[in-house]
Each structure stands twice: as C-alpha cells, then as structure tokens.
C-alpha cells in the first residue's frame, strides 16, 4: 500500500488525470467505504475499482458475469504489469490450483471471478484465507429480477456483505433507472454505500430515428454516404436476419461479420477479435454482442429493428463514439416492429406484472421514436437527467418534423377497424380504407362495409404512418394471439365522440444527414 491513486493512474495505466467522478469514487473505495457507481457505458468504470484494488493491500476480487471477456481484461492488466488472474468454468484444474494458491499467498493484485464460482463454498473458504482489498461487483444490474440481464447467482452475492463485513464493496452498472438502483442497494445490502451517478449525456452521438421504408436501401445509403471505411455495429432482432444482412453487405463490398449466440464459439470469438483489432469492420449482430465490448472508435451503431426498451437503446447506441469523436446512432423502425415486439412481450413466459412492465418499457421506447422535439431531451429525461435546451445534435433538432391534424383520418381508421370486426391487421384495414380490390376483401365481403374506400385521400404509406402512431400511442391494441389483429382501446372514446383532436407526426421522406443539413 504505497502508491497514491494518482500515481497508479499515471504510472500503471498511463493516464494524466481522472475523469469527472472517478477521483471521488476511487478515494471513497480506497478509504474503505462501499460505493454504488452508475456511469454510462464508456464512462470509465473499470478504473474505479482497479485503482483502489492496487492502492489497498490484498487482492481485489472482481465479480463479472462476462466469462468471455475475463481473459481479455486479465491479459490487458498483465500487459500493464498488474498481477491479475481469473477463475471460471473454462479453466483446467492446474490453472485453477495455481490461481488459488496465488490468491492465498497474496501474490495476486486482482482476480476476476464468475458469480456462480464465487458463491461456492470452496471459493468463499479460499477468500477467507486471503487478504482482500475489495469486492467489485460489475454489471450490478444483473441482480434486478425484472431486468433482462437477470442472473440468479447475483442474488446470492449478499454473502459478501454477510461474510466479509469489513471489506469495501463497489457495485457498478450503466443501467440508471430508479428501480434498478433500489433493487441493487437492497439485494446487495449496499444501504451504506455512497452513490455516484454520472451524467448520461453522450454529446458526440448524433441520434437519428427514421421510418423503415426500404431498410436495405436506407442502410446502404447511410454506409456509402457517411460511413465509408468506418467501424460500426448493426443490430438485428433475429439470427437469420443477422446472417442475411451480413452476407448481403459483403456482396455490396463491405467487411461485414455476423455475430449471434447460434454461431460456434470459435467463430464468435474470431469475429469479435477481428472487430476489436482491425479497421473498417462492420459487425452485424443480435443483442448477444456487445456487453462489455470496449472499442473506442466505433463510428456508428445502426438498429435495423427497434430495441425493446430505452435502456437497451441507450446501452447499444452507447457503444458508438467512446473516444468522444462524432458518431451516429441510426434506428430504422416501422409498424411491424411495434406489432412484433408487443406480441413477443405478451407471449413471453413472464408473469402478468412482468409483461405489463415490459409493455411500459416498450411504450417509452415508442415515445422516443415518435417524439417531435429533441430526442436527447427525451432520452435523458428518461434517466432522470434534465436537459434545459434542445441538443442541436439529433435529427429532430436538425430539422423539426411537421405535424398535421389527423383527427379525421384517425376517426376513419378507428371506425374501419371496428366495422371489420377488430379481427384484421393494419394491411387489410388499409386496403379497405383505400377501397382496394383484392381476394381477401371480396371473400370477407368488406367491399360492402360503410368504411370501404373512405380513405382514398391518403397513400398506403401515409396510412401505415397513421396506424403506427395509433398503436404507438395506445389508441389501438395489437391482438396477441398471433395474427396481429388491431383492436380499439378505451382511449379511443373521446375521439370517436368527437371530443378530441389529434395531431400526428408527418413522416419525412428518407434523407441522409448530408442532404438534411443546411450548408453553413
Ligand atoms: P465502462 O466500463 O464504463 O464502459 P471503461 O472502463 O471500459 O468504461 O473505459 C472506457 C474507456 O475510457 C477505456 O478505453 C479506458 O481506458 C478509457 N478511460 C477511462 N478512464 C480514463 C481516464 N481517466 N483517462 C483517459 N482514458 C480513460
Ligand atoms: Zn436534439
């Protein structure tokens, strides 16, 4: 216990100065206190426990669920001259034996341990034999039962408090909402921890959310016009779409690599390390990719499908621009996304309460997509940060969307849903509204409905925009039995009774940033 935290920062890690909150956090933990750290991805959480681990005597024990990344983290530390090791299920007996001895003898500065391993009697006994500098609990939101990264083993981590009451603990996460924070404090027994919550703004990321019309064309235009030669991540909902998109991008001349949980571990490993080490690589991935990925110069993150919550959107887009340079987060979303996500949530195995929470989370995400004001203001407000002025670095700030009085159109749409029996999806209802002649319409006799052909003044695309916004705002519900039939909700009443007008966002023709921005 010789060097000061600043010495360690300078000489071991080679950085000049601490970032905003790092200094206070490091001092708190080095002084022996518990800390709860909430910091966006890329904010610099690792140093918050690595430096106290070195500044204090004994071994720093880091609990991390990311077995795949432990080896990388440990070899990075070793390169800096830190004596680090890890314990997880991938190691052979000899290595485990050596690492355990090194912990017992006090040789190791830091050890990464998977949660399921840490809570084993054998490991706890080992730690009782050793001198421990601190416990760091990384990705602490995994303890939240309602969150999507929940790990049952995290619930048992209260043993650290119960069995090692004198050892300081630091829990870290990028998930910021109140509930998760409260659950971390309660489950990990961090009532006495000092809380450090850092700003969530990522000012260098340009947020852009567009209607998905011709996704491949939109993507291609974005990559060619703005991202030539850059590294980026493209997220898709399904494995099949990941593979198709990666193959197609390669045909278009890009270095695109697929990544999803269905690929052999060796392929995943190889694609991930190529992405980390080479320039000009695009990773096409499911959300399986990215937890803990640290590549500073990711210039863009593109979502070809809508994430299911604002937290997920923020985490995933947060992988862009960790180096602080201008970066872009592009999301393409459409009617199908909403219908699909609503159904997925409803048909999941969760309890009723879980489903309701998931629907609320999805609604917040839809709100972000449909908002006509500054996106960053909405995004930050969601995490409890107020931003007094519009940001000037999102698509809505660049060119504010038009709105139009959609009251009449909405009334037509709702009554057409009602007249056709609330048994059909948007495409069929739109066909009725536009007076289309197709077999389904004739078979169902829908050409005789009073609403047949009453909506010719709007194009199919315009109607799709209306229906998307009706579903997003909860005026129409999606039947979850599987066919996506639309149904009226209670909220429709005032509109049907002529008591309420409704303004809607006018979807812009798809533009790239280059054409959108006025020359300065
Ligand atoms: P997080 O875990 O919060 O996502 P990391 O700990 O991986 O973030 O840090 C993100 C990046 O910022 C890393 O490349 C890291 O080396 C760098 N970094 C962290 N703290 C500092 C600092 N004080 N000075 C310079 N670079 C830093
Ligand atoms: Zn803005």
TrEMBL record:
Q: Which residues form the signal peptide?
A: none
Q: What is this protein called?
A: DNA helicase RecQ
Please provide the Gene Ontology terms (biological process) for this protein.
DNA recombination; DNA repair; DNA replication; SOS response
- ATP-binding: present as a keyword of the record? yes
Q: Which residues form the Helicase C-terminal domain?
A: 215-369
Domain of life of the source: Bacteria
Q: What is its EC number?
A: 5.6.2.4
- Catalytic activity annotation: Couples ATP hydrolysis with the unwinding of duplex DNA by translocating in the 3'-5' direction
- CDD domains documented for this protein: DEXHc_RecQ (cd17920), SF2_C_RecQ (cd18794)
Q: Mind telling me which SUPFAM superfamilies this protein's record contains?
A: HRDC-like (SSF47819), P-loop containing nucleoside triphosphate hydrolases (SSF52540)
Q: Which InterPro entries match?
A: DEAD/DEAH_box_helicase_dom (IPR011545), DNA_helicase_ATP-dep_RecQ (IPR004589), DNA_helicase_ATP-dep_RecQ_bac (IPR006293), Helicase_ATP-bd (IPR014001), Helicase_C-like (IPR001650), HRDC-like_sf (IPR010997), HRDC_dom (IPR002121), HRDC_dom_sf (IPR044876)
Every copy of the Helicase ATP-binding domain together lies at: 26-194
**PANTHER family reported for this sequence:** ATP-DEPENDENT DNA HELICASE Q1, DNA HELICASE RECQ FAMILY MEMBER
Cofactor(s) in the UniProt record: Zn(2+); Mg(2+)
Q: What class of enzyme is it?
A: isomerase
State whether keyword Zinc applies: yes
Gene behind this protein: recQ
Which GO MF terms does the UniProt record name? 3'-5' DNA helicase activity; ATP binding; DNA binding; four-way junction helicase activity; hydrolase activity; metal ion binding
Q: Which family does it belong to?
A: Belongs to the helicase family. RecQ subfamily.
Q: Which SMART domains match?
A: DEXDc, HELICc, HRDC, RQC
GO CC terms, sorted:
bacterial nucleoid; cytoplasm; replisome
